[in-house]
Please model this.
Amino acid sequence: MHRPIARGTAAFACTAALLAATGPAQAGVFDTLFGRSTAAASEQAAPTSKPGRRHWQLAEFTELRLAQRETSAALNEHPQVIPAAVLRQWMQGVVLQRGSQREPLFGTDELASLPAVIADALAVASPQDDLLLLSTSRRDGGLLGTPYGITARLFVQGGALQLLVQEARLDFYNQYRGARILPEFRFGSRGAAGAVKVSSPEATGVRGDWLAFALGTPAAVAAPAPAGVTPAAAAAAVSPAAAPVAPAATAAAAPRPAVQPVPVSRDARFYEEQEQRLRSLKRLRDQNLLTEEEYQAKRKEILQAL
Model:
């Protein structure tokens, strides 16, 4: 007669343990990711484009930091205003090639939270800064899915947002939980190609691990050539659909095309996913598995993505 209750209690305890394991990191954990942090606790809040801000911490092992650009790299075109909706569409289209399999690079939760933070960082970055991203997610695997990390470097150069992906599915989480051992996180480099293969219909592939999203019309902006590649070779890699370059006199006289905002697609499935996330979030709060502060912060994050 008591077995169903026992099973229910055990299931509840298991769920609580899993949620506790994915909760906010204790003080000191984040100091080991990019070096000791001097960021205030308020930096865990929603983006604010506050001048001088250097660090955005979203969750355990999910954060963004401004760092000195790579040695000998040209100055970046920062600060830059790119709408979060445009960033979300670009990120949604990035595909990871794993052997013969192709899958989205970013998960649903990352698409809901990261674009606003990246937009915020680009708005306050200086020409000396690169953006270093660490994002860890179960990527729609549910509570029992294994969290995997993404590490990447972002910057604006050549009239395009440059995305260098170093790690796409870094498996470190369980080892950290068991032995408190963290890997040395790396974030991609202009001068050394990584092993990751990514692609997007909205970006130019500079390298297998490097995509360039043009801020204007795709044919009008060239991505910077990676180390060891001549400008001519880099130009040959641009889509053949690009219009031929006009003579200097004609190009000078022709007006520049207006930059059109990139529309963001929203289908019924997207809104159903957000509704389900809000319902699940409320249920966790009602069961006292989330504090009111955590509930409101996550609810705001989901609503900002709509």
